[in-house]
Structure formats: structure tokens, C-alpha cells
TrEMBL record:
Pfam families: Thioredox_DsbH. PANTHER family: SPERMATOGENESIS-ASSOCIATED PROTEIN 20. It comes from Cyanoderma ruficeps. SUPFAM superfamilies: Six-hairpin glycosidases, Thioredoxin-like. Residues 36-197 form the Spermatogenesis-associated protein 20-like TRX domain. It comes from the Eukaryota. This is Spermatogenesis associated 20. CDD domains: SSP411 (cd02955). One of its GO terms (biological process) is carbohydrate metabolic process. InterPro entries: 6-hairpin_glycosidase_sf (IPR008928), 6hp_glycosidase-like_sf (IPR012341), Ssp411 (IPR024705), Ssp411-like_TRX (IPR004879), Thioredoxin-like_sf (IPR036249).
Amino acid sequence: MLSASLRCARRHTFLTGIAAMATVGTPGPPGVPRHTNRLINEKSPYLLQHAHNPVDWYPWGQEAFDKAKTENKLIFLSVGYSTCHWCHVMEEESFKSKEIGEIMNEHFVCIKVDREERPDVDKVYMTFVQATSGGGGWPMSVWLTPDLKPFAGGTYFPPEDGVHRVGFRTVLLRIAEQWKENKDALLESSQRILEALRHTSEIRVQGQESPPPAKEVMDTCFQQLSRSYDEDYGGFSKSPKFPTPVNLNFLFTYWALHRTTPEGARALQMALHTLKMMAHGGIHDHIGQGFHRYSTDQHWHVPHFEKMLYDQGQLAAMYSRAFQISGDEFFADVVRDILLYVSRDLSDQEGGFYSAEDADSHPTTTSREKREGAFCVWTAEELRALLPDPVKGATEGTTLGDVFMRHYGVEEAGNVDPRKDPHQELKGKNVLISRCSPELTAARFGLEPARLSALLQECRQRLSSARALRPRPHLDTKMLAAWNGLMISGFAQAGAALAEQEYVSRAAQAAAFLRTHLFDPDSGRLLRSCYRGKDDSVEQSTVPIQGFLEDYVFVIQALFDLYEASLDQGWLEWALHLQHMQDKLFWDPKGFAYFSTEAGDPSLLLRLKDDQDGAEPTPNSVSVTNLLRAACYSGHMDWVEKAGKILAAFSERLQKIPITLPEMVRATALFHHTLKQVLMVADGDSSGFLYRQLPFLASLERKDGKATAYVCSNFSCSLPVTSVQELREMLSP
């Protein structure tokens, strides 16, 4: 399956072979839109962005399916999301074109899908696009028969033909002609394609297969990651470069199990170095906080500027763990940075979290065209004007601008490599990146490090105030159960690691929001999404979208994390209820593991099981750990058996290419090493704080003081421990 981290960075289309660079469309006249289609009645911000296209868009649903069958028309399916740069480009060039809209309306029933709202639809047709083209991404463009079977597809199409490319208009007309002249052949082809997809996408246990051995799988995954590791800048590729929290989480666990070995030391170094380089890089928003989606270069410098909630949640957890293990306050400061951004810019007043901020925005209030990164970048001239003050105590003639520009790599002509800026949107601009250590910058200007820190903080505050006057990027105010779960985990784990009760309270507020707005108490089921509506109220779709596997998995994980940070029994009870519901709705009793969707939706041609950790871990990977935790808390040992069956179903992949499933590899280790729980209590008081798993022993060592520790497995024993060394021996694998 395509990693979601590739997002709309991939623009390959199998119908063209090569997708050339976009040509800029001519914007229509300002004023009232000339067209309004039925998407105006939807809640999704992405669908609403297309509500004034001249295309007669339908949302995914029976009305569109019936029209295609009644009129014997092909379906054109367009899938994207509201902060996708190339989705915006294709809309401007093609979907806003009256002429192209007329072709689409005449020959096709056109359906628009928000992939974040309907990941089930997206996964089915992305599986087809990947299988037939070798690539994928968004916007995804797929042509279907009236019975929803795909036969042609790709991603971004330019509007017109060019050298080495075929334009969207030409593709539409050719496919319409094929349907008219060779309908039977297309129908036959679509059926063969569907049968092949069913065969190749099946994941099931083979014979009497059992969970793979932990040591071999762990070692192979570590070796594969080590070979792909960038020794200079961290991360696991040259470019583009993604945060990949799943890799870092695996490395922390590998270190915990091999902490006295050279391999364990290298695993920890790889993870910590990667996290430091990311925090210094341009992928980190040094002025507005939080992290952008990914880096277009090897150095973590020039990012794709959208900000996604799921990145913030997972990275908050990773930096919290880095702090727990290392004790380095640098990592704790990054945690606070991320959570400040989310609390300020991605939080609904009712307690939920919004999905994303766009990469594109208007450079000025009078600009007609948006540009990627416009909200975040600076010219040297702007910085000198904002930071003209002389710095007392520094070398003669030094201004705040001199200090700031030196530290953050600002150049007079801009610091963006033109090769990373194909449309010259960043020409003459600077993406801030910490080029020097604080010690080097301080020495360069004759300053004490503490003085430098205060000066840089003053500069950042001024730039933040200046940036607040710029037009903001689009905010996707859709609230998803799964992504809210990841963010709740981030706040809960940060609260535990940094001993910050306000973070635990924020996690609890968000969990209460889910229970109020994304949970149906009558059916006991989760809902997928809700939306910020008029007057900032929380609204739901006319027909609510039921939760998918990922919603259950990430919410259950969040509730366990929140319970462990707060010891509020209610969160544990809700987590166990949702685990039972997940088993009922998604478990495959024949092939084992969980399907991504529940049975019974005739519009979904395939029930899939994700087989690759990407920007988010696959739900089955996290489910293994959730099941082990649920069994440990409840004594319901059938869940341990289920966890083993998931590992058995993925056994071949885990043994051959474990690097594709690092979170499941980590879960394999947990399956083979009994989970340990450590309850810290003082003076016989049975209330305390629950620590779990080996990576947290470093923080225990710093914090245990005179407390007594009790080690429990499944709550069946209560053994007093009087020293950290004794505790280590009991927890040794």
C-alpha cells in the first residue's frame, strides 16, 4: 500500500508515463461564483472547496451510483484532501475550466471524495492505481464502470497535451470514445483487474503458521534501517525525507532490549540524532511551532509546508520518549513547542483537534494567487527591517538581525536551492534552519550563551507578531476520531514524561470530546468525523460516517495512554469496550488479523488489510500492542491469542521485509516478552503512577527517590522492590 506520507508529492500517471510540470491556469473574475453544485451540502472542507466548480460533482453515494447505471455512464472518481497542493493545482487548471467541465458532465458521472473522510474508498482505488502504474498519490484520478470497477487511473493530469505528456482533456475524450466503441472489452478488463486485486491484496495466515521469532525479526529490521540511515543528517533516505515516527519508535524499543550492546547504542544514536536534526531543520517551524509534513531535501531544510495533526501527535510522543531516555531538556522543549502549536492553532473550543493547515497561502492581502510556504518564509530585507536594534555587549555594529540571520542560515539572495523550487515560489526567500550551534553563534558575536538564547527568543516573538499580519493558510476544521486519538496519546505521554498535569488534562478534554461527538452510546460504536460548523459549533453529517478500523485502534491506544497518565478508571473501561467492538466489526476469523473496514457495504469492492507502516502505523500493527495491554489490564487472555494470530498472518512479510512494518516488529518483541507494569507508591500509598515497558527505566532511575516500587504482571502479584538495581533485574527480558 502507498505510504500516506507521500501525499500529493507523487504526480505519476500511468496513462502518461511522465507527468510534466503544471502550467498556470488563468483565474476567473473575482466576485460571486458562477456555479454551485451539490457539494455545497457537504461538511467536508475538501468537498466544499469544489462546490463552485462547473463540474456536476456528486459525493460518494447511492445517488451517483444510480445515475451511472440508469444513464449507462462511466464514473470519474477524484480523490484528494483539502491541504493537498497538487489537488489545488488540478482544480485551478481543470476542474474550474468551463470547457473541461462540460466534457466531464457530458460523458461521466463525476464523484469527489475526501480521502481523510473516506479512507476506505481511497484505499480500494489507490490499490488499483499502484498495481497498474507502479506509483500513486493525490489527487487520485480513476475511471470506473457503472458497477464501480476500475479500469484506468492515475494521479495529477495537466489540462493540455505537451511534449512527453497527455493532457486531462485528451484522456477524458479518449476514455469516453473507448466506452462508446469497446464497452464489452472495458467491462471484461475491469473484471479481470478486480479479480487480480482480490488475489494480490489478500493477507491471511498460511497453514499452521505461528508468530515469527522476535530476535530474528528485530535484528533484520534493525539491520535494514541501519543500512538506509543517513549518518550525516539522520533519517532513512536522501530525499524526500519523512519524519517516520514508526522507525524511531522501533529504535527506542530495540535499544531497550539491547542497551548494553553496540547495536543498542547505535539504535539510540540513530533515533536521537534524527530527532535533533529534524528540530534544527526547516521542517520545524521555528516561528510558529510544530512540524511541516516532510522535507524535499536531504538536510531537513526545505519542507512541504502543510502541517498535519497526525504528525504532531506522533512526534510529541517521540520527543517525549527521547527526553525520558536521554534526560536532555532539548527534547522536552520540542515537546512543549509542538503542543503549544496544537493548542493554539489546531484546537476546537469544544476540545477536539482539527486535521491540518495548508501549505499554500496568499503572500499578501492583495495577492490573487496562493504560493506554497508564503506564510512561513522571509527575505533578508524583511528580517533586517524587523530586527534593526543594536545588540549591547556584542561585537561593534551587531544588530539583532545579524545574530538571527547568522544563527538561522539566512542569505541575502535567499537560501532555497532552486532545484527544490521548480515553480520559483521561494525565489529570494529564506526557510529558517539552525545552521550553527548556540555556542558557535554566541562565540561569533562575543555573547554569553544565555544572552544569545534570550536574544533569539525576542527575535522569534517579533517575527511571530509580524507573521500574524499575513494571510493565514487554509485550516481544515474536520475532526477525525483516529487522528484525535494520535494527538491524545501525544498529550498524555508528554504529560507523564514531563510531569505536566495540564497536558494530561488536555488529553482528557479531547477524550471527552470524542465520547460526546464521535461516539454513539446507543450502538456503542465510534463515528469517523465531525466538523466545525456555524458559530463554531460542532456539526455532524446528515448521515454520519461510521468509524473505521484505524479510528478504533488509535482511540483505544489513546485511552490506554490516558489511563496510564491519569489512573482514571473510566478511560480504561471505555478502551476495553471499544476493543470488544473492534473485534466484532473487523476481525477476520478465517485469515486472522483485522480488516480495515466492516462487512456489508456493497460499494466497497475489496476488504483490505494494510501491510505497510507509513506516516501512521498500520492499524494491525498497533492492534497487537493494544490487545496485549487490554489482556494485561483485564485478564481476558483471548486477546493475547488474537495478538499472536495477527503476527502469524503477517509472518512472511515480517521475516522477509520487516522494515515495511517496524511498528509490528516492535509489537512482536512485546508479544514474546511479557509486558511489565511498574507502580510507584510512597509510604504504602496504593495510588501512584504507572510506568510500562523497558524504555522508561531511565526516568525511573532519576525519579524513584525513596518510593517503593511494585512490579505486577496482569495484576496477579505485588512484589516490593527496594532498589533500582533490583527493579532492573526483575524487568530484564
